[in-house]
Design brief:
Length: 369
């Protein structure tokens, strides 16, 4: 009886908020909640989320006024999260990037000129946009996106590879840099390449499907080798039959797909663009704390960090947005927040200024030929 009463009250709450005082339908919290499939466990939770939503609408309005159309912000699926909740649930812990040794960098050589624009998505080298959900698994999506690109650059079929395999099985650590891959709590693509090399390959997305961040999530145990010192406490509850040891099957690894090494790319963004064109989509990391409400345009926040990184993504192209008296060069970036976010799952960010640290952790896997 209590559950039915709560459900009825929640329905009344949502319906009352569909209309203004005159009975005219407004752009309301309930409309937004239905559009994004939001379900709240109680009336109290719904009321709290609406309060956060309304506060965020004010923030979004201020952002749109500040950027004057150059970048547009909107009430997307994250509009019921405070900035602190967004940081905790979607992004990784903020931390400095890794100082790669000089012999890790690819020698790009002199770059004579670059085209005005370039985009691997128009050439069949990038798989569909995925959604990591409310866990910090962006590092695995960025890693897999790069390896997918390397695979298809060899003339192989465009293949959706398993992100969940990395999340559940990769506990690689780097004691010298005090870094580790930590499952749903974050990780580093340069370490994930090393895991794939040691493991001998990857399964496909279909055979080892993503579940950690789903609305009805799985509960895998910590990856083998999980390091509490670098990662913090592991998940408090898990199921062994939903974990790596029970699910991985090397016989299902994509035949012929072998990671043999990984390389870093120069922080010089001209050389970075040349490397993108030559080697395919590149894994990068950045400060994404201001990306929460991004909709479209060239993202160039006034206050993002170039050193405190909290999100890994995939650079797939570059271009320029031209105004009468100014040109805004940008990177085209594939995100892992679903195709409804941003520009069909992508965003553009200023190119040439080290914006948000996007040029500091550029890496790529190398595959056996």
């Amino acid at each position: 009886m209590y559950f039915r009463t709560q459900a009825f009250l929640l329905l009344v709450f949502l319906c009352l908020h569909c209309y203004g005082a005159t009975g005219q339908k407004t752009e309301s919290f309930s409309h937004w909640a239905r559009e994004h499939g939001k379900v709240y466990k109680s009336l109290q939770d719904a009321i709290l989320r609406e309060k956060v939503y309304q506060q965020n609408l004010l923030e979004i309005e201020q952002l749109n006024q500040k950027y004057r159309g150059r970048t547009e912000f909107t009430a997307n699926q994250f509009a019921d999260l405070t900035p602190e909740e967004f940081q905790e649930k979607v992004l990784m812990p903020r931390r400095p990037g890794v100082d790669f040794p000089q012999d890790r960098y690819l020698d790009i050589g002199p770059v004579d000129s670059l085209p005005d624009s370039f985009d691997w998505t128009t050439q069949g080298k990038v798989t569909s946009v995925k959604d990591q959900g409310s866990v910090g698994t962006c590092w695995a999506f960025s890693t897999v996106g790069n390896i997918e690109g390397q695979w298809v650059m060899q003339g192989k079929p465009l293949t959706n590879l398993s992100v969940e395999q990395l999340v559940e099985c990769d506990g690689t650590m780097d004691p010298e840099q005090k870094r580790a891959d930590c499952g749903v709590f974050g990780g580093w693509p340069y370490l994930a390449y090393q895991y794939v090399e040691r493991a001998g390959g990857l399964e496909t997305w279909t055979n080892y499907s993503y579940c950690s961040g789903n609305k009805d999530p799985c509960f895998p145990c910590k990856p083998p080798g999980y390091n509490k010192t670098y990662c913090g406490p592991s998940v408090p509850y898990c199921l062994k039959n939903e974990s790596c040891a029970a699910k991985i099957n090397p016989q299902r690894f994509v035949p012929g797909l072998k990671v043999t090494d990984w390389k870093a790319i120069s922080q010089n963004e001209t050389e970075m663009a040349a490397a993108l064109m030559k080697y395919g989509p590149l894994s990068v990391a950045l400060d994404a704390s201001r990306l929460q409400f991004y909709r479209r345009g060239v993202y160039d926040p006034f206050d993002c960090s170039k050193t405190a990184l909290d999100h890994a993504v995939l650079v797939v192209g570059f271009g320029s947005e031209k105004e009468i008296f100014k040109t805004h060069p940008y990177w085209k970036v594939k995100n892992s927040w679903g195709a409804k976010w941003g520009e069909e799952g992508y965003f553009n960010i200023q190119r040439g200024a080290g914006m948000c640290g996007i040029n500091t952790q550029v890496t790529t896997a190398q595959l056996a030929t």
